[in-house]
Prior knowledge:
By secondary structure, the protein is an alpha+beta fold. The protein has helices at 2-18, 66-79, 84-100, 120-137, and strands at 31-37, 42-51, 54-63, 143-145. The site of zinc ion has 8 residues, from helix 2.
Amino acid sequence: xxxxxxxxxxxxxxxxxxxxxxxxxxxxxxxxxxxxxxxxxxxxxxxxxxxxxxxxxxxxxxxxxxxxxxxxxxxxxxxxxxxxxxxxxxxxxxxxxxxxxxxxxxxxxxxxxxxxxxxxxxxxxxxxxxxxxxxxxxxxxxxxxxxxxxx
Length: 151
Ligand code: ZN
């Protein structure tokens, strides 16, 4: 049973990596943030169209590994229609899930990434687009990196 579930989650990730949703430049985006994960070579730009406090539209562009691409794809689908506060709440849930493996039932399809916690090197791949989306939603248009900037 558990193996079946793992396979199902892997299918979700592979399917989104192959055919990412909302994979486009958004010309009329109100908030844009870039995210890089130098350890893996993942590099994405997340575009949001905010209407006040609500994410009206979300898209992304860039390149990277299957996990990072699938994560960005599911992210853009998950945050559409959500408020800035909802996005931050979801960010915390996803971050907790990919580091502990414990999925909150409210995360829906994002639970596909719970298994990532078994592969610490891939946690940054899974959370990268979330960092970018959080920055974009806060109106901080800058490059976020999974690595601390060198002082
Ligand atoms: Zn990666």
